[in-house]
Specification:
The chain is mostly beta strands. The chain is 1% helix and 32% strand. It has 1 helix and 35 strands. It is globular, with a radius of gyration of 32 Å. About 14% of the residues have low confidence.
Length: 733
């Protein structure tokens, strides 16, 4: 079978969901075929998953339910006349978002036509011979590369029709993995087909430049290119008038997408002339007047990886107060933009306020949950990557019916007393009674009855804390198996999403049956309930990631001595309550005491109709394109250990590399260290060591040239038994 392999992290060279021909001299070059269709099936299920955000592969012994993934690529991006003899290598790459049960996959030929909108578990295309077998899929968040050179050559030579490729679990090893599809809006990790041509195909010659055609209506949005320098801000279009808020009604059906405006006519292609020296570029034709704004075209495929953008801090910095700025030194700011949200390891979430230069960025502390406390020191070497935070709160839905009152939570600590409110108007003075003798201070009286509960505030729309509860008992399935669960609402769930069920554990959403029924798959993560356990009705259900690896336990600090408790003074007897005077103005609210446990959330009210969208303002002029960033290869996170590990990453294009950057999740500790070496074959490019309390290292090594198809190897060794952790490695020029 064809050679196969895997690599981790992101190869920041040519991994996009929509390919385009590369222009230039006739020499070896990498081309990307466009992903035309992707879907997955579940054996025996009539459901179609063509629009799902995840692709699934599963089979025994890892799972008792067989799941297959089908992919089809458009080869029209290759130069006209390309044949199988022009192909040096073709690599299919997929991203394993989750691996519930590690194992291996096989790639099979598809031998009949199919559509992602009609394929189901009861209506699948025919499968042929294997293209690659026993490809390892060991862990989540890893790219898996599959050599499909022979299959692509057969497509180009007409030996077999291009009906795509199927990915299935290996019959011996089994597998249960979830891949990213082209419909996933959170990443740009859809399947890709990278085809390397040897340069011996039909020559591509440049014909004469045709006249500039008139500007056609706006087409569908293409994939996002690299961020160029920010151009001057164009004039802002007028804001559309806000529609009056209507009564909250049930959600209406989604209207049909407006028709895409017709494309402007394409000029006739000139005859191909003999390849001569390239002449100077002629002056650009004058830009025609901007036409009326056409209807909005359909949303384009997700752009190339932004979330994968990665760098690290190069100096310690102090955490600013929430809403305040701090200047931070980093390896590179090339991929950042003002207003973008970033996540800094051990620091939290920030907004980019300004970009000072290529290695300095000004960040504003957003204060999101989990961020480090102000004045904390964020260490040099902390990973920096793009990351979204909780979106704005949606419009408040109508208040649902009140749920039954839950048990009263423990009383939180009393908050400090707020400043006294202004004195109310003085009531009429009563007759002065005789002053009685001062009595001894009496014991504290019983607490008065609790006042009536105030009205329930409006329920906010579900954000990252989306929440519901089970409405019937269910039995815990075996690891990797499904169970149908009744819940209050499935409105915020999505197939492929990870959920946490109280007292039961973690699950992946396999299917959403209706508005109150969801099919969950037991992931078997640490702490999950044993198979066949009964999970009770009323258990909380929320979105959540799974438990990460446990870090080493630090030495316990010595317990400080407990100070003596002061004696409580006796409380005087409560005097009779005088008549209430007129209520004075409300004083400033005192500091809020610690929040008690949150009660169950009521059902979310139906969403009101969307207001009419205002007209689109004219587009500002496009800024000049920024300089192309340097090629680099990033791998990880990968497991590192006392015994050491070695990982390989294929090089997709020609590049020269010399600098090694490494970060790990856990410091090795005093007297212990990890050493990393990046190699090309037997030649060492660079080495660096992380020791003691550090969590990162970098080193400049020997400048080394790599060609497309070469393999970069990085090896990890240890000293002093620092234990297991995970590490991310980047090699750059």
């Amino acid at each position: 079978m064809a050679a196969t392999g895997r690599f981790s992290g992101a190869l920041i060279v040519g991994l996009v969901c929509v390919g385009a021909p590369l222009l230039g001299p006739r020499e070896a070059s990498a081309m990307l075929a466009e992903l035309a269709a992707d879907t997955s099936t579940k054996a025996g299920s009539p459901a179609n998953h063509g629009a799902a955000r995840a692709l699934q592969i599963a089979g025994p012994p890892a799972s008792n339910r067989v799941r297959k993934t089908f992919l089809k690529f458009d080869l029209s991006t290759l130069p006209p006349g390309t044949s199988g003899s022009d192909v040096t290598r073709a690599m299919l790459t997929v991203f394993a978002n989750r691996v519930n049960v590690p194992g291996m996959l096989d790639a099979l030929r598809v031998t009949s036509a199919w559509s992602e909108a009609t394929v189901t578990g009861t209506h699948e295309p025919m499968l042929g011979a294997a293209v690659a077998t026993a490809v390892p899929v060991p862990a989540k968040n890893e790219f898996v590369a599959i050599d499909v050179t022979a299959l692509v050559k057969d497509w180009l030579d007409g030996v077999a029709p291009n009906d795509g490729v199927a990915l299935v679990a290996n019959a011996s090893a089994g597998l249960f993995a979830i891949l990213d599809s082209k419909e996933n809006p959170r990443t740009s990790h859809c399947p890709t087909l990278d085809i390397i041509l040897n340069g011996n195909g039909p020559p591509a010659t440049t014909g004469p430049t045709g006249p500039t055609g008139s500007t056609g209506p706006t087409g569908a949005t293409g994939p996002t290119g690299p961020t160029g320098a920010t151009g001057d801000t164009g004039p802002m279009g007028p804001t559309g008038a806000t529609g009056a808020t209507g009564d909250t009604g049930s959600t209406g059906l989604t209207g049909a997408t407006g028709a895409t405006g017709a494309a402007g006519p394409t000029g006739a292609t000139g005859d191909t002339g003999a390849a001569g020296d390239t002449g100077p570029t002629g002056p650009a034709g004058a830009t025609g007047a901007t036409g009326d704004t056409g209807p909005t075209g359909p949303t384009g495929d997700t752009g190339a990886a932004g979330q994968g953008a990665f760098t690290a801090t190069t100096a310690d910095f102090s955490q600013p107060a929430v809403g305040s700025d701090v200047s931070v030194s980093v390896g590179s700011t090339a991929w950042m933009a003002v207003g973008e949200t970033l996540f800094v390891q051990s620091g939290g979430y920030y907004t980019v306020s300004a970009i000072t230069d290529g290695t300095t960025v000004v960040l504003n502390n957003t204060g999101d949950t989990g961020s480090a406390a102000p004045a904390s020191t964020i260490l040099s070497g902390s990973a920096v990557n793009a990351g979204g935070v909780e979106g704005p709160t949606g419009d408040t839905g109508a208040t649902g019916p009140a749920g039954s009152t839950g048990p009263t939570g423990a009383t939180g600590d009393t908050g400090p007393i707020g400043p006294a409110g202004g004195t109310g108007a003085t009531g009429a003075t009563g007759d002065t009674g005789p002053t009685g003798p001062t009595g001894d201070t009496g014991a504290t009286g019983d607490t008065g009855a609790t006042g009536p509960t105030g009205p329930t505030g409006d329920t906010g729309a579900a954000g990252q804390g989306a929440f519901t509860a089970t409405t019937a008992d269910f039995s815990q399935p075996a690891v990797g198996s499904d169970v149908s669960v009744s819940v209050e609402t499935t409105a915020w769930m999505a197939v492929g999403e990870t959920l946490f069920v109280q007292s039961a554990g973690y699950y992946t959403v396999s299917a959403i049956t209706d508005g109150t029924t969801v099919v969950l798959n037991n992931t078997g993560d640490t702490g999950s309930a044993a198979p066949a356990s009964t999970i009770l009705s009323g258990s909380a259900v929320s979105a959540g990631g799974v438990e990460g690896p446990t870090g080493p336990t630090g030495d316990a600090g010595a317990t400080g001595p407990t100070g003596p408790t002061g004696s409580t003074g006796p409380t005087g007897a409560t005097g009779d309550t005088g008549p209430a005077g007129a209520t004075g103005p409300t004083g400033a609210t005192g500091a809020t005491g610690a929040t008690g446990p949150t009660g169950a959330t009521g059902d979310t009210g139906p969403t009101g109709p969307t207001g009419v969208t205002g007209p689109t303002g004219p587009t500002g002029p496009t800024g000049a394109t920024g300089a192309t960033g340097s090629n680099f290869i990033m791998s990880g996170p990968q497991v590192i250990s006392n015994a050491g590990n070695t990982y390989n990453a294929p090089v997709p294009a020609t590049m020269t590399l010399s600098h090694l950057y490494v970060t790990c999740d856990t410091a090795p500790g005093v007297g212990r260290s990890y050493t990393f070496a990046a190699k090309k074959g037997a030649t060492t490019v660079a080495t660096c060591t992380i020791s003691g309390p550090a969590t990162s290292c970098q080193a400049a090594g020997t400048s080394t040239s790599f060609s497309a198809g070469d393999v970069l190897t990085w090896a990890q060794t240890s000293s002093g038994s620092p234990g297991s952790s995970t590490a991310s490695v980047a090699l750059a020029p």
